[in-house]
Each structure stands twice: as structure tokens, then as C-alpha cells.
Amino acid sequence: MIHKALLDHNRQVPRYTSYPTAPHFGPDVTADVFKGWLTALPDDASLSLYVHIPYCRQICWYCGCFTKATRKYAPVEGFVASLLEEIKLAGGELSGGQVVKHIHFGGGSPSMLKPDDFSTIMKVIRESYTVHPDAEIAIELDPREVTEAKVSAYAIGGVTRASLGVQDFHLEVQQAIGRRQPFHMVYDAVRFLRDYGINDINMDLLYGLPGQTLKMIEENVDFAVALNPSRIALFGYAHVPWMKKHMQLIDETALPDGAERLKQFDHASARLAQRGYQAVGLDHFVRHTDPMAEALASKKLRRNFQGYTTDASDALIGFGPSAISALPQGYAQNTLVAKDYAEAVAAGRHPVIKGKRVSREDMLRRKVIETLMCYFEIDLDSFCEAHDLPIGYFDDAMPELTSLAFEGLIRLLGRRIVIDQNARQAVRLAAAAFDTYLQPAAHRHAQVA
User: Are the CB atoms for 323 and 329 separated by under 8 Å?
Assistant: First the structure.
């Protein structure tokens, strides 16, 4: 019954890794505006840094990331030179008292970087910012590119967590998505990481891929658990060929329908629970000893552009093409054009091309949405009291929430919202009820199920 209600409500809504969401960014946030935001950061602010590596050796057909394929290293080498200048440029705008508590390398494929280039990037970061001795330094890795030399550089550079893009362990599914990756490659990557003391390991699995069956989904969980990662992320493949042309290479007739996707998620979730993993948020499953489980219990879980996180920093600064920064005043996104990025940095300008100033109203709704996305419930009356708002401040959301409650996807206890744990995907629908920017069919997002 719940599955049917979800499918009936299967409109496209944001994933809410930010609010307002990226489609609402505009050109009024310029490089000079961003510079002013950086210089205004308090001396005691905590920082998070995101480094986007926009290159891969080849584009996997399922990929929704901003990246380019290159077999040659020269474009990567040129990018690294610009990246180092951007890192220095932003650091030079700060007072120097701010402390970096999180660093995340994403992409693309950060594992494209040669060991010496990774080491140089970390060296320049440490020269340009004060990095906390216990900072979490995380890197996303393609198991096919992990070598002992690279892992040695990660360990020396202070990496504490690695996230391996696994997706699926079955050859026939791998062939259907253009990514050949035998189990032994993942095994070897895990062994190298642990041999060098990087023991916090995440694995990403995808459901909704062409040719996947429920049995395969369960086997994916079992193969992953056999390697004992501390976190497993279970993402639904978003087929958006109108946005990502390479997705046209995927046989749409082999994709599971919405009902099957929901069954796959449920089967994987149940299997993960059986194997001792605790559900966190919409798509994460963690060991009970993981810091994310502690953050959930202590109500310190957060959600940002990297998804669910324990990162509670005051500001996030993004580097590289397409990277987004999140500061107290709003969001700023770098240009996606490699040539424009390099030229801006060479001229001593921040490569920001658009963004969004956030109002107090935006901040309030962002907090409501983040609370829902992290904890699957919120008491609006208590929230209003805590923020000195009149009771009923968010009553504009009640008609949509009432409709969701009528369909059994959420429970409404007065103004207290509780998401049914058997329909966790409904949390995005509940969050959308608070989104004053969202207009039907105005923007195309990933499907709910």
C-alpha cells in the first residue's frame, strides 16, 4: 500500500543537499561578492574544504557527476596548477584564525591524481590554512585506479577516510553500465588502505541499475559486508539522459520500474540491518561504532553537498570547476568551463559564476528541511517556539503534508511530522512541502523512488 502511494506520488523533487537548491542559483553572486563573504568570516569560524577533481579516465554510463574523460594526464596536470592557485587565493582572503576540520576530495575521480600531485595539494592546503590535527580528510576513489603508491601518498597526506565507488559486483550489470570492476580490485583497494592505516572505509552501492535482480541486490550487500566497511551508501540510480547524454548508452528497457526499485531498496535495507548496519538518513547504513551513528543519536547529524555528514563546520569552501561553497551569507558556485576557470584563477579572481544569497526565511526553511532529511520527524510548534516564530508560521506547508498523511506516507500529530520508516523516500516529498521555490515542472530532478 505504501509502495503504491509512493509511486502515485513519484514526482521529481530535489535531494535537498542544500536549500535553496542549485537550480535557483543566479548571476547576482559574483566573484567580488564571494570575496566579501570570505573576508567577513569570523576569526573563530570552523571550515570545511571541498576539492573537486573534474576528470576520469572514462565516463561510466550511470554517472551524474560533473566530470570529463581523459586518457592523457596533461589536462589533469594543468588543472592541478590552477587548483593550487585557487586554494591559495581563498586562503589569502581569510584572517588566518579559522580552523579546517574537514577536507573532502570528490569528483570525477580524485584517484586520477598522481601521488606527487595529491601530496602537493595537501601541502598547499596546510600552508594556506590552519588544519586541525584531528581533521577528517576523506577521498572518493575508483577501485580500478587505486595503487599502493597512491595509498601511501594518501596516508602521508593525512587521509582518514576513503569512499570506494563499487556500485555493483556483478559482471553483467557492470557491462550494462560501462564499468568493468572485478571483486578482486575492490578487495585489493581495501587491503592497501588498511595496510596504510586508513581504516574508515565507505562503499557506495547503486540500486535501479539495468539487469539488477533482488538476488543480485542481496549479494551486493553480502559482498560489501564481507570487506567490513564502516559505512555503506545505498543510492538509487537516477536516469536523466536529458541532462547526461552518456546515459543514453544505457538500455532503458533493462531498467527496473518504480515498484521494483522500491523492492530493491527494501531488500537491501533489510539485508544491511541483518548484517549489523544501522540506517542513517535516507541512504546511509553504518556500523554502530561509526561517528555517524553517534551524530544521529546526539542530534548532530548534518546534510550538505556531500550528503549525510558529521561535518558541523561554519563554512564550506569549494575548489575546482563546478564546486559549490556554502557560507553564512549564501551559496557560490564555480564556473563549469575549464578554460574560464583557469583564466579567472590566473588573473587572481575567484572563478565564481553564480550563487544564491540566503534570507532569514531561507535559513529557517533550510533548518526544517535538514531536520526532516536527517531525523524523519519534526515538531513544528517546538521549532517555532525555539526560533521565536508565531505558531503556525509554516502552515503554508500543511495542505501538502495533509495529503501525504492521508496517503499513509507520513503521520501528522497536530503540527508534528513523522515519516513512516517503511517509506523513507517520502521524506523528500515532505521536505518539498516547505520549499517555496519549487514550482511544478519548472526544473527536472531525480525521481523519488
Answer: no
What Å distances lie between residue 416 and 71, 158, 399, 412, CA to CA? 53, 43, 14, 6
Angle at 318 between CA 314 and CA 321, to 5 degrees: 165
- The tens digit of pLDDT for each residue in 349-408 reads 999 999 999 999 999 999 999 999 999 999 999 999 999 999 999 999 999 999 999 988
pTM of the complete model: 0.93
The cell for 438 is: 519549487
Cell of 182: 572485478
Alpha helices by DSSP H, 298-348: 338-346
User: How far apart are the C-alpha atoms of 164 and 143, rounded to whole Å?
Assistant: 6
What is the torsion angle, in degrees rounded to the nearest 10, for the CA atoms of residue 255, residue 260, residue 265 and residue 267?
-120
Grid coordinates in use for 154?
594518501
Output the 3-class SS for 56-118. Answer: ECCCCCCCCCCCEECCCCHHHHHHHHHHHHHHHHHHHHCCCCCEEEEEEEEECCHHHCCHHHH
Digit-coded pLDDT (tens) for 133-186 = 999 999 999 999 999 999 999 999 999 999 999 999 999 999 999 999 999 999
Chain centroid offset of residue 199 CA? 21
Question: Is the previous residue joined to 20 through a cis bond, with omega within 30 degrees of 0?
Answer: yes
Secondary structure element (H or E) that encloses residue 378, with its range = strand 377-379
CA distance 445 to 378: 25
